[in-house]
Design brief:
The chain is of the alpha+beta class. The protein has two domains: about 5-80, Roll (Ubiquitin-like (UB roll)), CATH 3.10.20; about 85-160, [2Fe-2S]-binding domain (DNA polymerase, domain 1, Orthogonal Bundle), CATH 1.10.150.120. The chain is built from five helices and five strands, in the order ββαβββαααα. It has helices spanning about 30-35, 90-100, 110-120, 125-135, 145-160, and strands at about 5-15, 15-25, 55, 60-65, 75-80. The chain has a five-stranded mixed β-sheet with strand order 2-1-5-3-4, with helices on one face. Helix 2 packs across helix 5. The radius of gyration is 16 Å and the shape is globular. The mean pLDDT is about 95. It binds FE2/S2 (inorganic) cluster (FES) (2 copies). One FE2/S2 (inorganic) cluster binds near residues 102, 105, 106 and 141.
Protein backbone atom coordinates (compact mmCIF):
# COMPACT_ATOMS: atom_id res chain seq x y z
CA UNK A 1 0.00 0.00 0.00
CA UNK A 2 1.26 3.48 -0.92
CA UNK A 3 1.93 5.86 1.95
CA UNK A 4 -0.12 9.04 1.99
CA UNK A 5 1.90 12.24 1.79
CA UNK A 6 0.94 14.88 4.32
CA UNK A 7 1.77 18.54 3.87
CA UNK A 8 1.67 21.42 6.29
CA UNK A 9 -0.03 24.58 5.03
CA UNK A 10 -0.60 28.06 6.43
CA UNK A 11 -3.06 30.36 4.76
CA UNK A 12 -5.65 33.03 5.38
CA UNK A 13 -9.33 32.13 5.14
CA UNK A 14 -11.71 35.09 5.18
CA UNK A 15 -9.22 37.12 7.19
CA UNK A 16 -8.40 34.39 9.73
CA UNK A 17 -5.04 32.67 9.77
CA UNK A 18 -5.24 28.85 9.47
CA UNK A 19 -2.53 26.25 9.86
CA UNK A 20 -3.33 22.66 8.86
CA UNK A 21 -1.86 19.28 8.06
CA UNK A 22 -3.55 17.90 4.95
CA UNK A 23 -3.20 14.95 2.60
CA UNK A 24 -1.28 16.27 -0.40
CA UNK A 25 -3.82 14.86 -2.85
CA UNK A 26 -6.76 16.72 -1.32
CA UNK A 27 -8.34 19.63 -3.10
CA UNK A 28 -9.01 23.09 -1.77
CA UNK A 29 -12.74 22.29 -2.00
CA UNK A 30 -12.31 19.20 0.17
CA UNK A 31 -10.22 21.05 2.75
CA UNK A 32 -12.70 23.92 2.94
CA UNK A 33 -15.84 21.82 3.22
CA UNK A 34 -14.76 18.56 4.85
CA UNK A 35 -11.90 19.71 7.05
CA UNK A 36 -12.94 23.27 7.94
CA UNK A 37 -16.73 23.09 7.60
CA UNK A 38 -16.83 26.08 5.22
CA UNK A 39 -20.21 25.14 3.79
CA UNK A 40 -20.90 28.37 1.90
CA UNK A 41 -18.58 26.82 -0.71
CA UNK A 42 -20.75 24.43 -2.73
CA UNK A 43 -19.75 21.19 -4.40
CA UNK A 44 -21.20 20.48 -7.84
CA UNK A 45 -19.56 18.55 -10.65
CA UNK A 46 -16.19 18.13 -8.89
CA UNK A 47 -14.45 18.32 -12.26
CA UNK A 48 -14.09 21.99 -13.11
CA UNK A 49 -17.21 22.41 -15.24
CA UNK A 50 -19.96 24.11 -13.21
CA UNK A 51 -18.27 26.94 -11.28
CA UNK A 52 -20.31 26.14 -8.16
CA UNK A 53 -17.20 25.67 -6.03
CA UNK A 54 -15.66 29.05 -6.96
CA UNK A 55 -13.64 30.85 -4.30
CA UNK A 56 -11.18 33.72 -4.58
CA UNK A 57 -7.55 32.66 -4.31
CA UNK A 58 -5.41 35.76 -3.80
CA UNK A 59 -8.32 37.74 -5.20
CA UNK A 60 -8.82 35.67 -8.37
CA UNK A 61 -11.73 33.29 -8.91
CA UNK A 62 -10.76 29.62 -9.11
CA UNK A 63 -12.67 26.36 -9.16
CA UNK A 64 -11.66 25.02 -5.77
CA UNK A 65 -12.29 21.43 -6.92
CA UNK A 66 -9.31 21.80 -9.29
CA UNK A 67 -6.80 23.33 -6.85
CA UNK A 68 -4.62 21.07 -4.72
CA UNK A 69 -4.49 21.97 -1.05
CA UNK A 70 -0.68 22.17 -1.15
CA UNK A 71 -1.06 25.23 -3.41
CA UNK A 72 -2.70 27.04 -0.50
CA UNK A 73 0.46 27.60 1.51
CA UNK A 74 0.90 31.36 1.94
CA UNK A 75 -2.30 32.14 0.02
CA UNK A 76 -5.39 34.19 0.82
CA UNK A 77 -8.74 32.47 0.32
CA UNK A 78 -12.06 34.31 0.27
CA UNK A 79 -15.45 32.60 0.22
CA UNK A 80 -18.80 34.35 -0.05
CA UNK A 81 -18.99 34.61 3.74
CA UNK A 82 -15.74 36.57 3.60
CA UNK A 83 -17.41 39.36 1.62
CA UNK A 84 -19.77 40.17 4.48
CA UNK A 85 -18.91 42.83 7.00
CA UNK A 86 -20.32 43.09 10.54
CA UNK A 87 -22.63 40.13 9.90
CA UNK A 88 -24.36 41.94 7.03
CA UNK A 89 -24.56 40.50 3.52
CA UNK A 90 -22.39 42.19 0.92
CA UNK A 91 -24.31 44.71 -1.27
CA UNK A 92 -23.83 42.39 -4.25
CA UNK A 93 -25.58 39.60 -2.32
CA UNK A 94 -28.35 42.05 -1.44
CA UNK A 95 -28.72 42.91 -5.14
CA UNK A 96 -29.13 39.19 -5.92
CA UNK A 97 -31.97 38.96 -3.40
CA UNK A 98 -33.63 42.19 -4.56
CA UNK A 99 -33.61 41.09 -8.20
CA UNK A 100 -34.86 37.55 -7.60
CA UNK A 101 -31.51 36.12 -8.73
CA UNK A 102 -31.50 33.49 -5.97
CA UNK A 103 -33.81 30.51 -6.34
CA UNK A 104 -32.35 27.28 -4.94
CA UNK A 105 -29.18 29.29 -4.16
CA UNK A 106 -26.78 26.52 -5.07
CA UNK A 107 -24.92 28.52 -7.71
CA UNK A 108 -25.11 31.81 -5.80
CA UNK A 109 -21.77 31.81 -3.92
CA UNK A 110 -19.85 31.06 -7.12
CA UNK A 111 -21.83 33.63 -9.10
CA UNK A 112 -21.36 36.33 -6.48
CA UNK A 113 -17.61 35.75 -6.12
CA UNK A 114 -17.01 35.60 -9.87
CA UNK A 115 -19.01 38.79 -10.46
CA UNK A 116 -17.36 40.55 -7.53
CA UNK A 117 -13.84 39.76 -8.77
CA UNK A 118 -14.69 40.71 -12.36
CA UNK A 119 -16.24 44.04 -11.40
CA UNK A 120 -13.20 44.96 -9.33
CA UNK A 121 -11.15 44.70 -12.52
CA UNK A 122 -13.86 45.95 -14.93
CA UNK A 123 -16.15 48.33 -13.05
CA UNK A 124 -17.74 49.66 -16.25
CA UNK A 125 -18.43 46.22 -17.77
CA UNK A 126 -21.34 45.95 -20.18
CA UNK A 127 -24.10 43.36 -19.77
CA UNK A 128 -22.53 41.32 -22.57
CA UNK A 129 -19.13 41.40 -20.85
CA UNK A 130 -20.74 40.35 -17.58
CA UNK A 131 -22.52 37.52 -19.37
CA UNK A 132 -19.18 36.28 -20.74
CA UNK A 133 -17.47 36.69 -17.34
CA UNK A 134 -20.15 34.50 -15.73
CA UNK A 135 -20.27 31.94 -18.54
CA UNK A 136 -18.34 29.37 -16.47
CA UNK A 137 -20.91 29.47 -13.66
CA UNK A 138 -23.95 27.31 -14.36
CA UNK A 139 -27.40 27.99 -12.92
CA UNK A 140 -30.19 25.47 -13.27
CA UNK A 141 -32.95 27.74 -11.96
CA UNK A 142 -32.95 31.39 -12.94
CA UNK A 143 -32.35 31.56 -16.70
CA UNK A 144 -29.49 34.02 -15.96
CA UNK A 145 -31.42 37.23 -16.77
CA UNK A 146 -32.13 38.03 -13.12
CA UNK A 147 -28.53 37.29 -12.18
CA UNK A 148 -27.31 39.73 -14.82
CA UNK A 149 -29.89 42.29 -13.65
CA UNK A 150 -28.53 41.98 -10.10
CA UNK A 151 -24.88 42.27 -11.11
CA UNK A 152 -25.61 45.27 -13.36
CA UNK A 153 -27.58 46.99 -10.61
CA UNK A 154 -24.73 46.49 -8.14
CA UNK A 155 -22.20 47.80 -10.69
CA UNK A 156 -24.34 50.93 -11.12
CA UNK A 157 -24.55 51.44 -7.34
CA UNK A 158 -20.76 51.18 -7.07
CA UNK A 159 -20.19 53.61 -9.95
CA UNK A 160 -22.59 56.09 -8.31
CA UNK A 161 -20.71 55.70 -5.02
CA UNK A 162 -23.68 54.34 -3.07
S1 LIG B 1 -17.64 21.60 -8.38
FE1 LIG B 1 -15.87 22.62 -9.05
S2 LIG B 1 -16.37 23.34 -11.05
FE2 LIG B 1 -18.07 22.10 -10.48
S1 LIG C 1 -30.38 29.50 -8.25
FE1 LIG C 1 -30.52 27.32 -8.39
S2 LIG C 1 -28.76 26.76 -9.52
FE2 LIG C 1 -28.79 28.92 -9.64
Amino acid sequence: MRERTRVSISFELNGTHRHLEVDAHRTLLSVLRDQLGTLDVKEGCDEGVCGTCTVLLDGRPVSSCLVLAARLDGARVTTMAGLSADGRPHPLQEAFVRHGAVQCGFCTPGMVLTAYAYLRQHPAATREELRRALAGNLCRCTGYAKILDAVEAYAREVSLGR
